[in-house]
Each structure stands twice: as C-alpha cells, then as structure tokens.
Design a protein that fits this description.
Blueprint: H1 2-12, H2 16-26, H3 33-46, H4 50-62, H5 70-80, H6 84-97, H7 104-118, H8 120-123, E1 126-128, E2 131-134, E3 144-150, E4 153-164, E5 171-179, E6 192-193, E7 204-210, E8 216-222, E9 233-239, E10 250-251, E11 261-266, E12 272-277, E13 287-292, E14 303-304, E15 315-320, E16 326-330, E17 340-347, E18 350-355, E19 366-373, E20 376-381, E21 391-396, E22 400-402, E23 415-426, E24 432-433, E25 438-443, E26 449-454, E27 460-466, E28 471-477, E29 484-489, E30 504-515, E31 523-526, H9 540-555, E32 560-566, H10 573-593, E33 601-607, H11 619-625, E34 628-634
Parallel strand pairs: 23-30, 32-33
Antiparallel strand pairs: 1-22, 2-21, 3-4, 4-5, 5-6, 7-8, 8-9, 9-10, 11-12, 12-13, 13-14, 15-16, 16-17, 17-18, 19-20, 20-21, 23-24, 23-27, 25-26, 25-28, 28-29, 31-34, 32-34
Helix pairs in contact: 1-2, 2-3, 3-4, 4-5, 5-6, 6-7
Length: 635
C-alpha cells in the first residue's frame, strides 16, 4: 500500500517516471487492479510512451475500470503499435458508451479517428519514393529532434543535460549544433552546446526558429518538472550580438503563462511567426497560431489558424518551406500513427491538408520536417529501428504514388458537393417542430443571404449548397419566440481526399435550431459567467458569454430584460447583496458598451436570497447558486 500511495504522489506531481516503479512494487500488495493498471498506463502515456501504456490499459479495462477515457487512450496506444483493427474496436466502444462527462472535443476527435481507422487501407496506399536514413552518430538512446539548418550548421534539440526530467526519466533538453558536411546525411564533428547563454541545466530548452538574417532566435523554454501538466513552457527570444554571442533569452509577451507554447517557426519573409499552443479558446488540444511582426520587431496578438488546420487533436511543429507551403505534425488529421506529417496549401480561399504518406509517416510519432533543398531535408521520428527515443533522419524525396482503389481510374478527379439542411423546433420537452419559421442562411463574407425559406409542417428547411472554407450564419425567427442566430462554418468540414471513393460525393450537414418561447417573466440562466473571488470586473471568458446576450438583444430589438446576479451563502448577507449588485451592473455596462440601449436593461443583485440549491455542500452546488440570469420584462 505504501508503494501505491507513493506512486500516486509522484503521479499527481507530474513525476511519471518516478511513479512507474512504485506502481510496479505495489503489484505485490492487495491493490485494486483497475486503479493500479490505469495509473500505470496513464503514467506511460503522460510521458509520451504510448506503446508501453497499451498492456496496462488492457489490464485496467479487463479489471473493469470505470475511467471514461480508458478505451480512448488505449486506442491511440494500439495505433502507435500499428494495431489499427484493435484501435478501431476500442474507439467504437468508446463512442458508443461515452458518458456525458466526456468533453465535446474529445468525442469529436474519437469520431474522426474512427473514420480514419476505417479507411486505413486507403491511407496506406500513399507512398513517397524517398530514401530515409537515420543520422547515425548524431542520435543517442535519448531524444534528438527539431532539426534546423543555420548556415553550415545543423542545430537540434537533444536530451543531454546532466539533470534528469522526472516526467519521462530522460535528461533535460538543450540546444546543440554540429557542422554539416557537403553530404547532408553526414556531420563533420561531434555535437556541442549551441550557446553558453542558452543552456539552463534545470529546464528544458529547444525547438529554435531563426529569422531570415539568422540574428534573431525564438525558442521554447520551461518544463522544469515543478508544475504538473507541463504548462510552464513559454516562447523566448534571443539576439546575436557582438562577439558572435547570443543574448540571454527574454520571455515573449505573446506567451500565455497558463498554457504550453512551443515549436516556433518563421515564415519565409520573416514577417510572421507560427507556433503551437494549448491556450484557451482553441479547437482542442494543441493548436497552431500565427502572429505578425512589424518593422519595430513587435508581435501582434496571436491568431488561431482555424479549423482547416487545427482539429480537436494536437497540431505542432510548423514549418514554412521556400515555396510557402505549411508543413506540420498532427494526430487529429487522418494519419498512420500518433503524430503524422502533413502539408497545407491554400488556393481560391480553400485550404487543403494532405498526409505526406509513407515512409515519411509511420505508426509512431513523425514530426519536425524541414527542407534544405527542394527534395532533401530532415525530420524526427521515434519509429522502430532507431537509436532510442526520438531520432533525426535525413531524407531525399522522389515522386509520390498512390495505389488507387480498383474501381477508380488512377487520376480521375474527385469532387464533393456540400449542402446544408435542418429543422426549427421549440426549445421544450418534448421538442416540437415549428412550421412558419423564417430561416435565412447568410454568407458572412458578403452579409447577403444565400437562401431564405419558411419552414413547413415538419419544421424542416434545406438543402442549400455551401462552399468550402466559408463561414455562414443561420438566422431563424418566428412570432412568439426569440430570434436565434447560429454560426455555421465550413472550416474543418471538408472531407479529406483520401476518403473519397467516388468521382462525386454529396454531403449534407443537418443543423437543429431550437427557439425559446418569448414569455413575460421567463428566466434564462447565462452559462459560464464567472468572476474572480470578491471581484466584479468582467473577465474575458465572461465577456465571451455576455456577447451571446448582446446578439440576442440586437436580434430582438423590442426585448427588455432584467439582468440579475446571484451569489452563494459563503459570505455575510449584506456583502453578498452589494457584490451581486455590482456584478449585475458591470454586466449591463459591458452590454451597453457593445451598442445596446441602457433603457432596455435593469441590473439587479439578489445576493443569496434566491438559491437554486438550498444547503449546498459541494463546490458544484455552490457554483449553481453563483449564477447570472436574464428575465424577460417586456416584448
């Protein structure tokens, strides 16, 4: 029991490599097999050792684990082993039995992966004729990855520092360099430290990007093991000064201190920086972002690169080639392994993402691809046959071939037609379809409707053609109901070409729109309106939710409301009353700042006088009492 408890303490501290041997010792005791095996599986997964995690997930599932993500993570562990049939079976069971506590992004990722695994035989047909060579003496039993060429040097990230990272048991990461011979698949000398000023023993450092003139470097630094979850990774900047010396790195202001920010890359002209981050507001997991750099070297606010690039999974290690193509690694797009390398091209407003195929990709992690010449370059992989963990490989690229299905000509063009249809119903139980509802589908780029229709007896509308890459708004209105505006985007909804088996495929997206009845004194709870402790200023996450109310008020111009704030009971009555009144007023002031007439709203603080859960005990119950609502005063 002591070993198990010690293992759990290490696990909770993010010290997964120290937790694993304790869990192994605990097997001699009378520990619940489901819990013990799930903990050990998660310790391996959290330290990016998916293949080693697989047998422990299997044991945990056989022992009856109730952990909701067990089959989801087991599926990815099996996929890294090349066991696609087993991965598909686990994910299908996960999707079929997913509890309501599973996040939307996780469930969407699982459904996408099911489709990928079903089409794995098609994915495997794409093969690139290249020579792939392990960089020999450059690699070690530890990790070597993120290769980049600067002048005649190959600079890379490697686990070679003296201090050990408790997460995975490897030595801490640092930056190293080696001379390149004329023959790129060989190096001329043993690797050495890249810079004495960029070498802190107690942190991980790596994945550098260099400006066009080679005198500015952006790198990732953090993960000293003191914070669970690896959230202490930020982007830093260093400049080359006199004496060919790099300056002490300074943290970039675009970094999010609560998130993981890493794998930076410059555009060809050096005016844009791309990087990966799991900051709030993304598509799920780690996303790619971009920021512009002005003539003074200032960085603009980072922008998410959208759903065509980013998925509910992870997108990392961006690289922009000389011909302006974006290469990146992802486990969310249809791929052969955990991380695959993809290339994104944009034409006519539509972004196409294409898997690089074998042997660039494998069932393992493949990432960090760069080109040194149009048909030569480097990448990193932890595939079988390497020196240890992640290794650096050199490749010489040839032509791409795809083994087409027997029923389709080799180069037959394949097209997809996309359509939108839906239903309008009353937001009540049971849901009742609404006829006579006016529906407009608006092209956001032009502001013009592409379709206007009145629903018939079953409350249906559609179908109407859509264009790839475009954003739309569906506006539904009916007398006696609040007008509702639903965004709909075609970003990220294009069917990957690898899944197309017919010359023409028609796909219809069905949208269900629920209208709330406009009844006097009806109250609506605004979800996710949170305030900092004892504060009443509007936080960014609260502003995002209040913007939805702004839209409702603008779409229903005759509506007048009372906006109320409520507290829990964990403070004196008078204090709670003042705090709730201030919060309600702050919310109203915010809405007024967005162009809504103040005469249409009344701010009211109720303190703890209208509890939803009396005698609340859990934090969840207290949160239900700490709510923001609006009530219809007049129509």
């Amino acid at each position: 029991m002591q070993a198990y408890k010690k293992g759990v303490r290490h696990y909770d501290a993010g010290e997964y490599n120290l937790a694993i041997p304790q869990f192994e010792k605990a097997r001699k005791g009378n520990i619940d097999a489901a819990k013990l095996n799930y903990y050990e599986a998660e310790a391996y997964r959290q330290s990016n050792r998916f293949a080693e995690a697989a047998p422990f997930y299997q044991k945990a599932i056989e022992a009856g684990t109730q952990e909701p993500n067990a089959r989801f993570n087991y599926a990815y562990a099996l996929k890294t082993q090349g066991n696609y049939a087993g991965a598909l079976e686990q994910l299908q069971q996960f999707v079929a039995k997913a509890p309501k506590t599973i996040g939307k992004a996780t469930l969407e990722k699982a459904k996408r992966e099911v489709e990928t695994l079903r089409a794995m035989d098609i994915l495997a047909r794409k093969k690139t004729q290249i020579n792939l060579k392990n960089m020999g003496n450059l690699n070690s039993p530890g990790a070597e990855f993120a290769p980049i060429v600067r002048g005649e040097e190959l600079i890379f990230t490697a686990s070679r520092k003296d201090k050990v990272y408790k997460n995975n048991g490897q030595q801490m990461l640092g930056l190293y360099k080696t001379k390149l011979n004329q023959k790129l698949d060989e190096t001329g000398n043993a690797p050495e430290r890249f810079s004495a000023n960029i070498f802190k023993e107690d942190v991980n450092e790596g994945t550098p990007a260099f400006s066009k003139d080679g005198k500015t470097m952006i790198l990732a630094r953090g993960n000293n093991g003191k914070r669970k979850g690896g959230l202490d990774v930020d982007l830093f900047i260093s400049r080359l000064g006199e004496g060919n010396t790099w300056s002490e790195p300074q943290r970039l202001p675009i970094s999010d201190s609560t998130a993981w920010d890493g794998s930076p890359a410059f555009s060809v002209d050096g005016k844009t920086l791309y990087f990966a981050s799991n900051r709030a507001g993304g598509q799920g997991g780690i996303d790619l972002y971009r920021t512009s750099i002005d003539a003074s070297g200032r960085f603009s606010r980072p922008v998410n690169m959208g759903r065509d690039i980013n998925t509910p999974g992870d997108e990392m290690f961006p690289y922009v080639s000389a011909d302006a193509k974006l290469y990146f690694a992802s486990d969310g797009h249809p791929g052969l392994g955990k991380l695959d390398v993809f290339v994104a091209t944009r034409s006519g407003g539509v972004t196409r993402v294409e898997n690089m195929g074998q042997p660039i990709n494998s069932p393992a992690d493949d990432f960090g691809l760069i080109f040194t010449e149009p048909e030569k370059g480097f990448l990193a992989s932890n595939r079988e046959g390497g020196k240890g963990d992640d290794d650096i490989y050199f490749f010489e690229e040839g032509t791409t071939t795809t083994e087409a299905p027997p029923t389709i000509a080799q180069n037959a063009p394949k097209t997809v037609r996309y359509f939108l249809a839906g239903t309008v119903s009353a937001n009540e139980q049971p849901v009742a379809p609404l006829d006579s509802a006016r529906v407009r589908i608006i092209d956001d780029a032009t502001g013009q409707p592409i379709a206007e229709v009145v629903t018939g007896q079953p409350g249906t509308f559609g179908k109407y053609p859509l264009q790839e890459g475009k954003d739309y708004t569906i506006l539904a209105e009916r007398k006696g109901y609040l007008t509702r505006r639903e965004p709909f985007t075609m970003q990220g909804k294009s069917i990957p070409e690898v899944f197309l088996t017919k010359p023409q495929t028609d796909t219809t997206f069905n949208v269900a729109i629920l209208l709330d009845k406009a009844t006097l004194n009806r109250t609506f709870v605004l979800e996710n309106i949170y305030y900092d402790l004892d504060k009443f200023n509007i936080r960014p996450d609260a502003a995002e939710e209040l913007d939805k109310l702004v839209t409702i008020l603008k779409d229903n111009p005759t509506l007048k409301i009372e906006l109320s704030s409520h507290t829990d009971v964990r403070a004196p009555d008078a204090y709670n009353m003042r705090l709730s009144q201030n919060r309600a007023k702050s919310a109203v002031d915010y809405i007024v700042s967005k162009g809504v007439d103040a005469d249409r709203m009344v701010a009211k603080g109720y303190g703890e006088t209208q509890l939803v859960v009396k005698n609340a005990k859990t934090e969840e119950e207290h949160q239900r009492n700490r709510r923001t609502e609006f009530k219809i005063l007049s129509l």
